[in-house]
Amino acid sequence: MSWTKVASLADIPQGTMKQVTIDDLDIALYHTAEGLFATSDVCTHASAFLTDGKLVGCIVECPKHGGKFDVKTGAAKAFPCVIPVETFAVETRGEEIWLDA
Ligand code: FES
């Protein structure tokens, strides 16, 4: 694990999400009213990018079968998702967003 600059705050307005890639890892970065969070961008049910789905509050809905995850904890919140997604630490340094992956 090491810290990498992945975006600027201007790139991801509150209420939106963005895919970032570190090495071969596809990571979803979320800007919620509760802050910035990051998880694997790959749904644990089958193969879909969560960033192609919908972000409502701190819950992301997968575009493929409608499963849901809590972006703060990675916990699966709606069937057919039962396996949590991996989470990553995020921090801001001034206007920059850094991720530990
Ligand atoms: Fe995400 Fe099925 S691939 S819910």
TrEMBL record:
Residues 4-99 form the Rieske domain. Belongs to the bacterial ring-hydroxylating dioxygenase ferredoxin component family. Its cofactor is [2Fe-2S] cluster. GO terms for molecular function: 2 iron, 2 sulfur cluster binding; metal ion binding; monooxygenase activity; oxidoreductase activity, acting on paired donors, with incorporation or reduction of molecular oxygen. It comes from the Bacteria. InterPro entries: Rieske_2Fe-2S (IPR017941), Rieske_2Fe-2S_sf (IPR036922). Keywords: 2Fe-2S, Iron, Iron-sulfur, Metal-binding. This is Non-heme iron oxygenase ferredoxin subunit.
